[in-house]
Amino acid sequence: MNLLEVKGLKKSFVEKKAVFPAVKGIDLTIAEGECLGLVGESGCGKSTTAYMVARLIREDEGEIYFNGKKLNAGRRLTCAGRDLQMVFQSPKDSFDPRYTVLQSVMMGADSYHLWGRKELEKKSLELIEFVGLKTAYADVPVMNLSGGECQRAAIARALLCDPRLIIFDEATSALDVSLQAQVIQLLRRLKRERNVSFLFITHDLALTASICDRIAVMYAGRIVEVGGTKEILDQPVHPYTRQLLASVLPVTADGSYRFPVMERLRETEASGCEYYDFCNIAADICAKKVPGPREYRGREMRCHCL
Ligand SMILES: Nc1ncnc2c1ncn2[C@@H]1O[C@H](COP(=O)(O)OP(=O)(O)OP(=O)(O)O)[C@@H](O)[C@H]1O
Ligand SMILES: [Mg+2]
Fold first, then answer.
1. Which of 54, 69, 145, 249 could disulfide-pair with 257, CB 3.0 to 4.6 Å?
2. 171 lines ligand 1 (CB under 6 A)
């Protein structure tokens, strides 16, 4: 059964009276115990998608189902509760600097009144240790921690709620390699032992290989290719996925690099495929029509030319 199902999710932002679409209608599913990787370059809409799923911002259009229940049913932003937790991209900003590590870790679960004070404190200290922070840090103000330490505290805070889905928004980027490996091991264990699901947002494709079951590749507000991790990494098919894996920036005729997403996103009038200008297999139709999702070699794809 799908724990999370997202249908036709859209979000535009207004900036200096200009409306530009950040997320242009995306569909996602995550099964119980599954880890879905969401990859794509900076600005393509990954965090915006995560914020909508976690009900931190309201979508313009679309439906979000979590555990069979529609999350965006009413006009108010209703959170999914303890079952859906998020670890944020910038660890420091996700804590109130006035509190200690222990207080910060306890705060989320405390609001759900799951346990008494003593029990809550005991579980928090266990988790603080579990994520690799010394328990002596418990009484240190959270603002004194380094980026990596803060991220570990954020992971402990999410785990304390015993969630069924955790959104990791670049949550391992601030960590050094050995700690990254520890966190990945921890996630794998949670997946295996507690059937926890993950939406794992990352730039780092090597990391997806070690944790994700499937990968969704996002480009300029759309998901252009979804498939099994091995298939996507071994045989990328969409021209953008191939470029992403080759880690090369498209070069213009005069030899300078271009950043496709930032340019295309702001072109609200664009009617064709967002990747048109940078694609090496584009045809005339690509400039005129946005490719719809379709099945190609066992994965879902948005491309006219494959
Ligand atoms: N609150 C906002 N107001 C205006 N524009 C926004 C807002 N939030 C995001 N955007 C814009 O929406 C686009 C998508 O942003 P988002 O943060 O979702 O990208 P991302 O894929 O998470 O990038 P990164 O990998 O750098 O974290 C960007 O162009 C960004 O500038
Ligand atoms: Mg982001």
1. 249
2. no
On whether the CB atoms of residues 30 and 215 are closer than 8 A, the answer is no
| Residue-wise pLDDT tens digits, 188-232 | 888 988 899 999 999 888 788 889 999 999 999 999 999 999 899
Question: Can you list the positions of beta strands (E) in the chain?
Answer: 2-15, 18-31, 35-39, 61-66, 69-70, 84-87, 165-169, 197-202, 214-219, 222-228, 294-296, 299-301
Question: Could you tell me if 120 and 109 are in contact, meaning their C-beta atoms sit under 8 angstroms apart?
Answer: yes
**pLDDT tens, 228-275?**
998 998 888 999 998 888 764 455 555 554 444 444 444 444 688 988
> Domain 2-219: what homologous superfamily?
P-loop containing nucleotide triphosphate hydrolases (3.40.50.300)
Pocket test for ligand 1, best of 12, 41, 44, 240 (most atoms within 8 A of CB): 44
Tens of pLDDT along 92-142?
888 999 999 999 999 888 888 888 899 999 999 999 998 888 888 899 999
Measured from the Cβ of residue 23, the count of other Cβ atoms closer than 10 Å reads 27
Cβ of residue 12 lying under 6 Å from some atom of ligand 1: no
